[in-house]
């Protein structure tokens, strides 16, 4: 049912804006009730920031290998509580339970160094949690150890890690929001790709692609959603686009909703970027290993060695480093990665690497970043954004998740929450979409 040539209906019960994880979850839940629903997606594909691309790699012994590579989210975080784990298996995709690389010793890092790093990070966590328990919401960097101490030598890596976790350095991250995140430390993956999963789940859903929304007119008895392909009237609307689009008013509300826009501005999208590189003679490295570039600066990347045992290195860049490299263009990411890896592994290593893909979420018109973080003092903006602006307009996505923000499953759960709210607004019994117990 997913065709960019699908005409817009004149009127539906619910318009869902955005065909990422949250939008697909909302539409799937609504479709079970017989409610008429249409999903409007600005891109030419389903998935949003869950996007799997395929690259075919010719192997040195002959033959070729198909590589599904996740450009955005790649981990089923908190997998023991993540509803998408069961869904992945239900649709016939493969859940890989191999422990993540960050759960084991980093390649080339001594036991003593790992212990020192772990102790420094745990101490930072304890200081932040104590401050939040006192009712404080401050920049995370306020709790760094002095840089001239043994613990403080790791401050650069703290910010590098924050770039991966939050898409921004700790100085830009609310401590109250940081503590609110729920991590059960159980992490799985989808062998065929997380983006493949969301695209698969979206196939039964009516989606109009290449259909960016510019304005939501709330002045009449029905809401008028205006797009580049025409307008559609709806009794209710579920908006699932990234916060940066709401904050910049890329989609305008009429009449305006200044509190909604302000809440979105308090939850900007940071940036986490990836480069996938093919590597020759990968057997030199452990399967699903990890290597850090440097420990003394945030201007460094983390490297996932041989994910799924494939002949690939996946490099992660976060925060200011990712924004700066994006400004230089895709090639800058590969050049930076090569430079760091050569420093660790020798000058000949450059010849063994071939770039495969590079993510550019900051430059992507319909994302403008990777995932949300709350600015200091703005932890409450997640609840503010999730609170209905009126009884027929609901906002959902990873940014509105109270504890699983920044994750695909958090977005999925929020989409389902918004669907139930829309059903209530339409007077539809929620139990129509769920099996009853005898």
Automatic annotation (TrEMBL):
SUPFAM superfamilies: FAD-linked reductases, C-terminal domain, FAD/NAD(P)-binding domain. GO terms for biological process: auxin biosynthetic process. It catalyses: L-tryptophan + O2 = indole-3-acetamide + CO2 + H2O. Residues 22-419 form the Amine oxidase domain. InterPro entries: Amino_oxidase, FAD/NAD-bd_sf, Flavin_monoamine_oxidase. It comes from the Bacteria. Keywords: Auxin biosynthesis. Pathway: Plant hormone metabolism; auxin biosynthesis. GO terms for molecular function: tryptophan 2-monooxygenase activity. The keyword Repeat does not apply. The keyword Cytoplasm does not apply. It holds the Pfam family Amino_oxidase. Its EC number is 1.13.12.3. Belongs to the tryptophan 2-monooxygenase family. PANTHER family: FLAVIN MONOAMINE OXIDASE, LYSINE-SPECIFIC HISTONE DEMETHYLASE 2. This is Tryptophan 2-monooxygenase.
